[in-house]
Sequence to fold (310 residues):
Amino acid sequence: MMNKRLDLSPPVAAALNAGCPVVALESTVICHGMPYPKNVETALALEQVIWKNGCVPATIAVLGGRLKAGLSAAEIEYLGKNGSRITKASRRDLPILAAKGLDGATTVTTTMMIAHMAGIDVFATGGVGGVHRGAETSMDVSADLEELARTPVMVICSGAKSVLDLGLTLEYLETRGVPVLGYRTMELPAFYTRQSGFPLDYRMENPAELADAFLAQREMGIRGGMLVCNPIPKEYSMDPKVIEAAIERAVADGQAQRIHGKALTPFLLSRVKELTGGSSLESNIQLLLSNAELAAQVAFELRTRPRPSF
Fold:
């Protein structure tokens, strides 16, 4: 039974009713990840990649308190122009936004939640949240990791954002039983770069293998999601030394300004962009496009697979 607070766009509703593949996209990247108009251009480009690969895109957001799976170009433009004025909405924010009729840009967490409500199995993003550097004292751990442990959606990403503690992030995911698969790699990608130094246990070579793994997880009744790590294309991978120096400076600046909570990651990404002369923004866009293409290929493979019973 469809959630009464959820609205599907006509293309998404038609695709789901017909059993056609759909790919979810987040909206935090529109409001909190990039400046206008680059954010809108990127959001529309991601949708085009998914259309071209035989699937229907479902950009997800909260508008006027309604959970939206599938946005119009005008709605994407609205989010892009309003940017950081739109609430960055995690799990804890959804009830309040819905009750008050407010807008929200969905994170990995809330995009997974709404995708699952709609019956969408595959979601493409840039990088997931994780355990922040210094979490042993701040206890700052992204809600994304908990959502991956509870919501049966496959998330295609380029690893965890490299501003995080990648080793602890992997440990947390292992503890919570989340399968982390490398796509043509045995090393966790570090968002802007292809290498992190942290090994993965499983490597998958093609979209069909990814679809088979997700199907096996569902058939066994194992709850929770699956994280697929797709390294940034080689030609856009940044110099690890350059990006690490920028991240260390950004983290120090964030600490000096006492920035924490859900404001921290957008601040760090913006500061890294400044410190790298904007080159990190282009890398971010290219990894998003690559992940959208892979997600569409997996969703296409899954089109004949049975849906989960939970």
In short: The chain has a mean pLDDT of 92. The longest strand covers residues 56-63. Residues 279-302 form the longest helix (24 residues). The radius of gyration is 18 Å.
